[in-house]
Batch of 4 targets.
Target 1
Amino acid sequence: MGIKLVELRCPFCNAGISLNVKGKKNVFCPYCGGQIFIDDNEHIYTYKINKSEFIHERYTNDADMYREKRKYKENKRTDLIFIGFVVVLVLLCFAPYVQTWLYENKQINNGMVKVGQSSSEMEGKNYRTVQEELRSAGFKNIVTINLDDAIFFIQDSETIESVSIGGETYFVADDFFDPEDTVIISYH
């Protein structure tokens, strides 16, 4: 028993169809989905759907399909715009960090030393502690100046009055200097 392929034309869309109809009472057109009823004994192929009703249904389905495709494209476009917006936002958020990282790496590669604390943070600290911190950061020329003006109970002795690095008395923790710059620590 082999497969019985029958060549016929779909009564709805006029497409040429090759189908296995053996033992089947009806088949569906693979192109338009129209239902075709089969009487195999007499090789009569009929359809019992009102053609005008089917055509209306088909156009309605086509319109629904078109609307779904358009909606899908619009949703896809909206999704792409949203993703693009998020990517730009993330880049804008991280750009300063990347720029800072690149700047710091460039300075370090050029042999510069990062201070690690601002001049105002150093004021009032014990000069020996700050001297050691600056030495461990990489500064080589550290000079201390004792102002000899510490007054008992008014000012603590050995506290920093000011720090100058390479002639600059105001700097922030993220500033870079040449390790050969002279560091002057004035303390009470």
Target 2
Amino acid sequence: MLQLAFLKVRTVVASLVMSAAVALPFSAQAEGLAAPAGDVMLTVSGDIEMTNIGATAAFDQEMLAALPNLTISTTTIWTEGINEYTGVALKDFLAFLGVEDGTLRATAINDYAIEFPVADGLEDGPLLAYLRNGETMSVRDKGPVWLIFPFDDEPKFQNEEYYSRSIWQLDRIEIVE
């Protein structure tokens, strides 16, 4: 019985801590951005306010999971059926890093790169997904990170412009002016 009470208290405390972290403004959460403890999945450079390794912000999966996450369900032209993608909304990620404008250059492991104005990636926009159907995405399976749009939710995303921006095997983002 004492063990059950301890578990309930621990669950409540964990919930309160998580609620407080999510309620903090992104700038307050980002102060003292820690270096990644695990394998780096995504490195951001350029015109950013938050860094942790030199002039870059490097993220492992645990760091991405600590940011406010959401899950979208969508079909894509590259996968079969409806899949669930979990990650950080690009607009939230950029706000966390202090990015307000400029051009986002996203580059994949194979050096495929796309560019678009930061403003295009904001409202109802893409997700920096690191899970598909609850599983980590391997490089072979379009991971470690896939910039994916909610194609089924917004018809405006169902065209070549946005399909080309849906970059998988994403490992680098640069914010340029």
Target 3
Amino acid sequence: MNSNDTALKPWLYGKITAMGWIGKPSFGGDFAFLAAYLPGDGELGPQAAQSALRKLVAAWGMHEGSMVENPEIHGMPVTAVLEGLTVTVLGLPGVPITLPVTTEWAVIARQHGQISFALTTRPWPYGPVESEAAILRFFKADPTTNAAVSMLLPVATPAA
């Protein structure tokens, strides 16, 4: 996959979907988590979406099951930019991620100066999303985490 072919076209693969939550990692305390996946609801279906995302992750020099702290892709840092109650992940070629977050999530992300981000290549397998709890179960399931690239991202806040 070359630089001209890195965008995941939503009509073919589905639109990248992301969710943020507060969790308690093994080292204790509250931490801001963000995870993203392809629903696989595009014209080509879930298997094509998974294949395209795997190729994209490989083009970044990463692989499923890896954990990367302060990642760089093609020499550019991957960063979570927190502006008000909106987070945007910058530096993921072909994967646009911007979503609203809660006040609690934003405060914890700013306090730690970093977030845990996971991008799973596993497409959503259950049809229409019925609840946030269902998405959280999906993200915590072994097949999803095993198919994820996990990243510890620095948090940047734009100057006022």
Target 4
Amino acid sequence: MRSAQPGTGPHIAGPNSRGKPGQASAVPRVAAGTLAALMATVTGCTLPPAAEAEDYPSAARAFGWTERIGGHEFNDPVDFGTTSRDGDGEWYVWEGPGYQGRGRITRDNVDVRDGRLILTGKPDGSTGTAAYYGATQKHGRWEARVRIPSGDSGYTAVALLWPHSQRWPDDGEVNYLEAYGSGATNTVTVHDASGGEHVFVHSDGVRVDMRDWHTYAVEWTPDHITAYLDGAPVWTMDDHAMLPPGPMWHSFQVDSQGVGEAKVPTVMEVDWLRVYRL
């Protein structure tokens, strides 16, 4: 898992920049629109009651993603104890050393209450990670509604795709939400090491107040990876050599970055996760 593996933190550089992080650049602002509420009829997934119209923007509604195959609304309890580390089941809560050995990932920092998945990074360096194996696939679409009401620059909050093979970074990693604390910039990063060297490409940071609720999405096809914010595409990567070679699962996590001493907890709240086929 990313938290227990060597890797890189978020970087803000030019679009599709590769290799080592560059200098920070100006970041574009993305205006969130309002789309009409629309609920798709889906078999086998728990959806909100039809009467609860969703008046916030969504990539799924904007682009007609209707073949939903998994996810969670967090209105019901989640059993984090029935899934193996190899991805046999739906959810797995990681325990062990934190990102690059910083702090520790613990079950106590993952909770579901009030219809939300809540991950916490505490001032003592302990953090939380919740991996969703329920709709592991090669190519697809993932969307989540997330906010970070409290944050410290010593942590990153991340929503990502991780290789089912667990061969990292050889089989890639796709971070479609990555931000320090409750900061105002989201960065999208794609990792790869299939050529024998760990490289990555990443977007310019996208300005967004992550203390508020927003929808973040990623589409992975045989030709490209596109990230979305509030229903609008914000970055596309079409370098075929960087595209992941095999199936991936989804993970939410708060990682300790070891940047000074955290003074306040970082809290990542997830309203829902929805997974679609292409």
